[in-house]
Specification:
3 helices, six-stranded antiparallel β-sheet, 33% strand, mainly beta, 25 strands
């Protein structure tokens, strides 16, 4: 019988079609995703002189205040940092009250997902840097500021990196409407650090994280827990308050060098790390928190990751949560599809019985084969009653005549 006979073709289709479909699904998950979005890459490859004084100096504004200086040297990052090129900028070396803006997107463009900013930073002098921080505006006086903010207004909501000199030079983070929160450990002057800021629109309120690294880390998992995490202050989202501008300034507090500024939607974009590999496992990136029986728990977030712990941007993978330790009924929407960043968010969970619990996350559909994740232990407990009434002066006997 010839190979092109209709019966032979039908047999071949029956035998090979399931295998081909399985191969296609495997390829979909195994193909490393392209980088997400790199909004700004700034090696400061401009002629020495004032930043922003001419079109040759990129998209930095021609400020009416003292401009930041481009200096004819570049910083060398920690070992492993992608090779730097061009010059750097020195802030505070020709007088203070210096500032420049870079509008890297249209106003209000970024109002969802995550935004990462990475830059090299070296402090060469603390100058008259203040020892405490109660400032709630983006124009942080008497110290270094690098702020992410709206593209049209310097008074808009922002997230900023800033410094104080309190038992050593310390780097912190703030959103407007709230003072800065600082890392406890001081940095060392004349040492170059890799500084990374993460702003997460998906949390309510929006969360911001700060890492101050003396060694290069190409993955967020490799960097470990953030040095500073904040959520107080005014959020950048939604609407016209979206993120689209970077602001550098100093107002009489020390001398600083900045180089290799990158802003992107993933850690790898901002730090120059290798793109994530195929999704091989799940991880709880926001763990379940303790709650009362039947009460809605804080949102739980599960992320698809590669073997190195990098987030993998794989969309529409069904993720299902089950109660794997402890008694009771887990209620809410227990299956969520991952979004474009590979993240599944569960925002209406509750458990009806008290005790210690754990959740397990499992992928299905196109995510079949990705390893499960088990949460940390949390507790469902009846809230402790508050203060109670008490007689502080007891009634006394009274004689009736």
């Amino acid at each position: 019988m010839k190979a092109n006979h209709p019966l032979i073709r039908r047999l071949l289709n029956r035998c090979y079609r399931p295998a081909l479909m399985a191969l296609a699904l495997t390829a979909l998950l195994a193909s490393p995703p392209a980088r997400a979005t790199l909004y700004l890459t700034e090696p400061f490859s401009y002629p020495a002189g004032a930043l922003g004084v001419s079109p040759a100096n990129g998209t930095w504004d021609t400020t009416t205040k003292s401009a930041i200086n481009v200096t004819a040297t570049g910083l060398t990052g920690p070992a492993g940092f992608p090779a730097a090129g061009g010059n750097d900028v020195t802030i505070g070396n020709t007088g203070h009250n210096q500032q420049n803006f870079n509008t890297f997107t249209s106003s209000g463009t970024i109002v969802s997902g995550t935004v990462y900013a990475c830059f090299l930073l070296k402090v060469t002098s603390s100058g008259s840097m203040r020892s405490s921080d109660t400032t709630t505006s983006p124009n942080y006086n008497d110290g270094f500021t690098l702020a992410l903010q709206n593209a049209t207004s310097a008074a808009s909501p922002f997230c900023s990196v800033r410094m104080i000199n309190s038992s050593g030079i310390k780097i912190g983070l703030a959103k407007n409407g709230a003072a800065g929160v600082y890392r406890t450990a001081a940095i060392t002057a004349n040492t170059t650090y890799m500084v990374v800021v993460k702003y997460d629109f998906s949390t309510t309120p929006n969360t911001a994280n700060l890492w101050i690294l003396s060694t290069y880390q190409g993955t967020e998992a490799g960097a470990g827990a953030a040095d500073v995490t904040i959520n107080t202050g005014t959020d950048l989202a939604p609407g016209a308050a979206g993120l689209g501008q970077c602001y550098l300034s100093d107002a009489a507090g020390g001398t600083f060098q900045v180089d290799e500024l990158r802003i992107g939607s993933t850690w790898q974009d901002a730090t120059g790390g290798a793109p994530a590999g195929p999704a091989t496992k799940l991880a709880f990136t926001t763990q379940p928190a303790s709650a009362a029986p039947g009460a809605t728990m804080n949102a739980v977030v599960v992320q698809a990751q590669d073997t190195g712990g990098q987030a993998v941007a794989t969309n529409n993978v069904p993720i299902t949560l089950t109660l794997s330790s402890g008694s009771g009924i887990l209620s809410g929407t227990l299956t969520q599809n991952t979004d474009s960043s590979g993240k599944a968010t569960f925002s209406n969970l509750s458990i009806d019985q008290v005790g210690a619990k754990q959740l397990t996350a499992a992928a299905s559909g196109i995510g079949a084969g990705i390893a499960n994740a088990t949460s940390t232990t949390f507790n469902i407990a009846v809230p402790v009653l508050g203060a109670q009434l008490a007689f502080t002066t007891q009634p006394s006997d009274v004689n009736v005549s």
